[in-house]
Specification:
- This protein folds into three domains: about 55 residues, no CATH class; about 90 residues, Tyrosine recombinase, N-terminal domain (DNA polymerase, domain 1); about 170 residues, hpI Integrase, Chain A (Orthogonal Bundle).
- The protein is about 50% helix and about 10% strand.
- The strands form two sheets. The protein has a four-stranded antiparallel beta sheet, covered by helices on one side.
- It is elongated, with a radius of gyration of 28 Å.
- About 25% of the residues are buried.
- The mean pLDDT is about 85.
Length: about 350
């Protein structure tokens, strides 16, 4: 395509408006702030093309009048993370800052408006070879969010980062404690020291509820409804991962754990009291795993343990996803734990003998 689109392949049909002689698709070419902007209008309808061109001209006019038009990438990234900070959890904010530090190595010398598709493809080629797929995807997502912010602020017309595809992440099946390993872990923690007992309680609470760590350590006695056989997961001050509380059935294993805890208390607890009084069992788990010769299990392994038990019980992925707080209807659970269902199904299939005796 030529710089002006005005050659044998394209016909000028109006001010800033061109049409492909072959595909009949309309194109726009305009200049703002000394920069040429070319866009396919993605239509063969003349009236629609003129409306799209008018909208493009309006956006381009706002772009040229923007006082921050020459802002650099580093400054914009800092503005974005500050603006987005209110909706980000501390861990997410930290991760975004790590990504921005990595992006600044390549993009700090660029004015935001000069970040083109070509520049982004060069970054993707270099960075894609240097880091793992998961790291690349995190940085790509952060970059895209920053440039989307630039579009919203009138600094860029479009977000060119959208053309950069994520890399495929190869996920190995998660390490999941067996029931024997889990029992050994809890027993080892309870036999260690008196101050390890709350850590063992936290582990049992996660394993029997499927909660994330911050969700489990923020459950209060007032969140439990024994009569209706359900409990509420709020995530405490930081909230749940998707910022929505959820109501979950009071699973038998969880109810047994809670009833045992109640029997150990000298008096009925207040509704605002936490089930467990600690935020993390990390150190106690590391010590117990080392002492018992177990793999290095973490809090999240206990969430995996909950899922594996649910699958073995024949619970469908959609129900499990709802309990876990996933919003995808079970897609992630199926992707992560599908092999467990297949293994369990194969074991169950061996029971389908119909009274046939095998010699």
């Amino acid at each position: 395509m030529s710089e002006t689109l005005n050659n044998s392949e394209f016909q000028l049909v109006g001010e800033c408006l061109y049409r492909s002689r072959n595909s009949k698709i309309y194109y726009a070419i305009i200049k703002r702030g000394g920069k040429q902007i070319k866009r396919s209008l993605r239509t063969t309808d003349g009236a629609l093309a003129k409306r799209k061109l008018s909208e493009l001209l309006d956006r381009a006019s706002a772009l040229s009048q923007c006082e921050t038009g020459k802002i650099g990438f580093s400054e914009l990234a800092e503005r974005w993370v500050t603006a987005a900070g209110a909706s980000l959890k501390p861990a997410s904010k930290t991760r975004q800052k790590v990504c921005i530090n990595a992006l600044n190595i390549f993009f700090s010398a660029f004015e935001v408006r000069r970040i083109s598709k070509t520049v982004l493809e060069e970054w993707a080629a270099q960075r894609g070879e240097a880091v793992a797929a998961r790291t690349f995807n995190h940085e790509r997502d952060t970059l895209s969010r920053i440039l989307t912010y630039a579009v919203r602020e009138g600094i860029m017309l479009d977000n060119p980062a959208l053309v950069i595809k994520k890399r495929k992440v190869r996920q190995a099946p998660p390490d999941i404690p067996t029931k024997e390993q889990f029992s050994t872990l809890i027993q080892t923690m309870r036999e260690a020291r008196a101050d390890a007992l709350p850590a063992a309680d936290l582990c049992e609470l996660i394993a029997s509820s499927g909660c994330r760590l911050n969700e489990a350590n923020s459950i209060h006695w007032g969140d439990i409804n024994f009569d209706q056989k359900r409990f509420v997961i709020t995530g405490g001050e930081t909230g749940t991962k998707n910022h929505e509380f959820r109501v979950v059935p009071l699973f038998p294993a969880l109810e047994n754990f809670l009833q045992r805890k109640l029997s150990e208390l000298p008096q009925p607890p207040e509704s605002f009291e936490s089930i467990v009084g600690i935020k993390s069992a990390k150190k106690a788990m590391i010590a117990a795993c080392k002492k018992a010769g177990l793999p290095k299990f973490t809090h999240h392994h206990l969430r995996h343990f909950f899922c594996s038990n649910a699958i073995e019980a024949g619970i469908d992925f959609k129900a499990i996803a709802g309990w876990l707080g996933h919003k995808d209807g079970g897609l992630l659970v199926a992707k992560t734990y599908g092999h467990l269902r297949d293994e369990h199904s194969a074991i169950m299939a061996q029971r389908m003998t119909f009274g046939v005796n095998h010699e």
